[in-house]
Amino acid sequence: MPFPDLGSLRQDYLTAENVAGKTADHLHLIAPYNTRELRFELGLAALVIIDMQRCFLEPSFPLFSANGRAVVPGVAGLVEFFRRRSRPVIFAAQMNKGDQIDRGEVLRRWWPATPLEGSRDTELAEGITPLAGEKIIPKRRYSAFHATDLELTLRSQNVRQVVVAGVFTNVCVEATVRDAFMRDFFVFVPADATAAINEELQLGSLRTMALWFAKITTTRDLTSC
After folding, report:
1. Could you tell me the pTM of the whole model?
2. Is 90 exceeded by the pLDDT of residue 112?
3. What dihedral do alpha carbons 163, 169, 174, 175 form, nearest 10°?
4. How far apart are CA 27 and CA 19, in angstroms?
5. Residues 6 or more apart from 109 whose CB is under 8 A from it?
6. What number is the average pLDDT over the span 48-54?
7. If exposure means fewest CB atoms within 10 Å of the residue's CB, which of 72, 107, 151, 184 is most exposed?
């Protein structure tokens, strides 16, 4: 089955230069939904980075998004901040063992070409390379919690709050946020460290998460503590 043509749905709404302005606009637009008062406590928090991989961030791949590339500096800044404060940084990366091993009929139908474990497709973006001792979770489905040991890893480090950043906001980021909420973690999503393939999907996902699952914030607010 051929890969779906996303051409008409793509919109390069983010650049490295306009991220701050766009984020301010988005926070204003979702403000009626983003009313939860939730205090960020770094000492209880872990950072979970979703799918900041070559297959989403380089133009030669079917799911490339320039919007994802635009948030790389924001994601990298969060990684460095959590490292400096000796808080857990966890990387979740979409990959499968093989088409007939751990993908399944539904995933094959929705996503005909998936990055395979050990391939260059799954490598993380420059500047977001895990350090020795930082956990990389192979993610077989959209959520980083599904059939992985992410929850065990977080519980083992007494984590109560989770910051989720990466791509794509309305797919794997939101799926992970929902599952974190269902497991009784308080969730924060930095709007300037997430991206979707178009602005409509970005705003829709931010509104949904804000109303039901997470506090939408910014990298600046999270790193000012």
Report:
1. 0.96
2. no
3. -110
4. 12
5. 1
6. 97
7. 184
Domains belonging to the chain, first-starting first, are 19-223 (3.40.50.850)
User: What phi and psi values does residue 173 have, to the nearest 5 degrees?
Assistant: -65, -50
Dihedral over Cα of 124, 222, 16, 23: its sign: positive
Whether the Cβ atoms of residue 177 and residue 209 lie closer than 8 Å to each other: yes
Q: Name the band, by pLDDT with cuts 50, 70 and 90, for residue 111.
A: confident
User: Is the previous residue joined to 168 through a cis bond, with omega within 30 degrees of 0?
Assistant: yes
List pLDDT tens digits, range 115-155: 889 888 899 988 899 999 999 999 999 999 999 999 999 99
Q: Give bridge partners of residue 189 from the DSSP assignment.
A: 216
Do 72 and 128 form a contact (C-beta atoms < 8 A)?
yes
What distance in Å separates the CA atoms of residue 91 and residue 52, rounded to the nearest whole number?
A: 9
CB 20 within 8 A of CB 192: yes
Percent residues over pLDDT 90 in the chain: 82
The tally of CA atoms less than 13 A away on the side-chain side of residue 23 is 23
